[in-house]
Amino acid sequence: MSRSSLNVTGMWAIYRTEMARMMRTILQSVATPVITTALYFIVFGGAIGSRMQSVGGVDYGAFIVPGLIMLSLLTQSISNASIGIYFPKFTKTIFEILSAPLSFGEAVLAYVGAAATKSILLALIILATATAFVPVHILHPVWMVAFMVLTSIAFSLFGFIVGIWAESFEQLAVIPALVVTPLTFLGGAFYAIDMLPEPWRTISLFNPVVYLVSGFRWSFYGVGDVGVGASLGFTALFMALCLAILWWIFRTGYRLKP
I want to staple 223 with a disulfide (CB 3.0 to 4.6 A). Which of 55, 56, 138, 144 is the partner? Predict the structure, then answer.
C-alpha cells in the first residue's frame, strides 16, 4: 500500500474494535446517562428551579440542559479516548499497533474518532432525555452540532494524551475526577457567570470550560457568558495544542516505547 494514501483498512479495524467495546456494555452506556440526567433534573430542577424560575430569560430547567450535556461530553470524551489507548499499553499489544503500517495521524484519527463518536451518541441520548423533563429549544442547530463535534474531538485528543501518560488505572481517573468535573461545575454549567460577585466573576473567566459551556448554551438559547468567537477560538487553540503534544509523543516515543 502506498503511504501517500490513508490506511483505511487499519483505521477501520481500530475504530470498529473500539465501537464494539461500547456495544458490549450498551445497557450500562445508555442507562447511566439517562438515570444521571433524571437525577440532575430532580435535584437541580426541583430544588433550585422552584426558587429560581429563570436565568437570562430562560427557564432554569432548560438553562441547565447545555451544561449537563457538556459535562457528559467532556468526561466521556476523555474517558473513552484514555482507556482506548491505555488498554493496549496495559495488555502489551501497543507494540503491534506501533509496528503496523499506520502513521501516527491514522492511529490518532481512529482512536479519537471512535471516542468522539461514543461521546456524541451519549450527548444525544442526554438531550433526548432532557426533552422529557423540560421544553428544549435549539435556536442554532448547526452551531449546536458544530460545538458538540469540536468539543468531543478536542477532549478526545486530550484523553488520548492522558491515556498515554497514565501508568495505572488510578491515574486514568485523576484528570476527569479531580480536574475536569470540578472545572465544569465551576464553569457556569448550572448558573450564569454574571450571577457571581466580584472578584469571582473575573476569576471564572480564566476557567477554560466557561468558554465551552457558554458557546454551547448560545447555540440553544442565544445567550452566553462570553462571545461565540471566544468560545470557538479557545476550542481551536486547545485542539491545536493537543495535536502538537501528540505529534511530539509519537516522534519521541514518550511512554509508548521502552
Answer: 56
